[in-house]
Amino acid sequence: MVEQNIKKEFNCDIEKLWDIITNNSNYAWRSDLSKIEIIDDKHFIEYAKNNYPTHFTITSKEKLKVYKFDIENTNIKGKWIGIFKKLDNGNVLLDFTEKIETNNFIMRLLAKPYLKKQQKRYMKDLEKELNK
User: Fold this and answer.
1) CA neighbours within 13 Å on the CB side: how many for 117?
2) Contact 98/4 with Cβ under 8 angstroms?
3) Is the pTM of the predicted complex or chain greater than 0.90?
4) DSSP letter at 113?
5) Which one of 5, 19, 65, 104 is separated from 82 by 20 to 30 angstroms, measured CA to CA?
6) For residue 21, which of 101, 72, 95 has the smallest C-alpha distance?
7) pLDDT tens digits, residue range 4-29?
8) Beta carbons within 8 Å of 78's beta carbon, 6+ residues apart
């Protein structure tokens, strides 16, 4: 299993941050996606810019605290855990961890740098959206 974590502090309202991240209907701020298809309140499919689908199942959604889901596509299977923490200075700390298994050895070698790149892009896109 490959695990990658990223933490970032944002100077914003925790509710605004929560709403941006958990609202799958509003994905235009994500530079890595072409669309999100919402199946029901627990399932959605993200499509990368090349229309490659990744299926998500929400396993926990504790408002302003925790957002977790299972991830699966033809190359990977795993879990994503997002922790939201309001800090004493008024900022919000996001703590995201992705744990995945891959189908083959080459994917396993590439998975950690790929996840790191994706997480950095996500945080950069999120920061842009917050600064609008």
Assistant:
1) 7
2) yes
3) yes
4) H
5) 104
6) 95
7) 999 999 999 999 999 999 999 999 99
8) 1, 70, 71, 72, 98, 99, 100, 101
